[in-house]
Amino acid sequence: xxxxxxxxxxxxxxLDHIDPVAKAGEELVQIKYSGICGSxxxxxxxxxxxxxxxxxxxxxxxxxxxxxxxxGALVAINPLNGCNTCNACISGKANLCADRQIISMPxxxxxxxxxxxxxxxxxxxxxxxxxxQSGSLTEPLACGWHASRLGLLIQDRAVEKLKCxxxxxxxxxxxxALSLRAMxxxxxxxxxxxxxxxxxxxxxxxxxxxxxxDSKSPKPxxxxxxxxxxxxxxxxxxxxxxxxxxxxxxxxxxxxGEGGVDVRRMTLQEITFIGTYTYTPQDFKDTGAAIxxxxxxxxxxxxxxxxxxxxxxxxxxxxxRAPAPKIILIP
Length: 331
What we know:
Blueprint: E1 2-8, E2 11-16, E3 26-35, H1 38-44, E4 55-56, E5 60-66, E6 74-77, E7 80-81, H2 87-90, E8 101-102, E9 115-119, E10 123-125, H3 132-135, H4 138-153, E11 163-167, H5 171-182, E12 187-191, H6 195-201, E13 208-210, E14 223-228, H7 233-242, E15 243-251, H8 263-268, E16 272-275, H9 281-292, E17 302-306, H10 310-318, E18 326-330
Parallel strand pairs: 11-12, 11-14, 12-13, 14-15, 15-16, 17-18
Antiparallel strand pairs: 1-2, 1-4, 3-5, 3-9, 3-18, 5-6, 6-10, 7-8
């Protein structure tokens, strides 16, 4: 098969690669769509020791099962699976399993390839081929769904009365905003500093888009919930500033681990900070159901490119030249 291999720092090579072999309890999936995630970018730049080169990246994917009794079934891939025996897994939180594995991280090759092997239980059926591209967004949108759900869980008033702010207009941020809308929130603002992407966000229904310095920018101390989909010191500082007394910050971005948290203000104002990682299996299923029912909108804000053009796609994202919140690669 052909695969896009992260062969060195900042280098992606489109090469022939050995076909994956499905083990017991696994399926072979022919990849139709595979999105580029921020964590793929971290690995590409050499910032993720968990993903050493050479490695096939990619974990936001959909496709069709090849072989076996479910041959031809259209599926969205949940790339994360736990041990199924620990307390986290038994309680439905496989994302917190100490032995969790995810494709695109050793020992599991990723989905920037023509095929991938994946446990059968990790496959969510897609109703029809017209939803297969949107199905590849289930994984990143499930991250936003999870962060939104946890952030709303501890609010002390009705969701329709909440003011919510999302930092970052990538797929995680947009997914968070659309998830909040689907959960009943009305007042949602996404802050995006890249003017090219901001123009795209302003064409998406369901939330306001702001540069953070315009008339739509929320005032400090007014947000019931802030979701940080970026995760740098600057965005954490902004989140701490925007959260109201008694407010909540859901932190999902993994940009950098240092700085930005105003612990004194969070303590004096009883602001709750929640670290949120990926999604539970139920979050993934709920997100897929919302996508397939149209509750997250048309999801037409993506750009598709050939897998063979992966190097250019990564470069465009890195240098801020990509207007779409998500680039999806097609083998």
